[in-house]
Amino acid sequence: MMREPGKIDNRRPHCYSFAVKPNRHVYKACPRMKKKIHPNYTANAKITCACGAIYEIGSTSPEIAIELCAACHPFYTGKQKIIDTARRVEKFQARATRKTADKTGKKAKAAKRSAQKVAKREEKEKSEA
Question: What integer is the mean pLDDT of 63-68?
Answer without folding.
Answer: 91
